[in-house]
Amino acid sequence: MDNVAPKQLKLTAEECCEQLLTDPILKQGMLRLLLLFKELKMKPCWYHAKSYKCNYKGERVLYINFGKQNWLRIRVCTVGDMHGVGEFDLYLDMLEDELRNEFMNYAANFKRCCKSGKGCGVCGKSRTYYITNPTEEQFEWIEKFIFVRREFIEQTKKHRG
Predict the structure, then answer these.
(1) Are 91 and 83 in contact (CB under 8 A)?
(2) pTM here?
């Protein structure tokens, strides 16, 4: 019986933040995001070991991954490839100039959630704003991209439905 590993506890995102983040920028930024999620009624749901996902109206908005001490990765979904090229243009039109510039500067670094590039059924092969250990400025960008993603979901649901 001693050889049996204990089951991984399903900690909340708040518990991971408290236990794993001691760096003041990471902790303060993550606590601010968690407060924003609460205000937007977007509860981070446990995905797997210290990883969480947030949805809005059934569409993925972002993933949060906690690693070892003071390691944090946030992936904000922007626009997917599943529903057509026109959605990319719609997404760009929704961005204010400063945010559009950040989006275009960052576009070269977009990564697929799926290593295969074929889509996993979860992300829809989305282009993802992918940040490890965000700075204060990057936390601000993340917040802005969350609002744009939610608006994008609203707009595309209107066009599809």
Answers:
(1) no
(2) 0.76
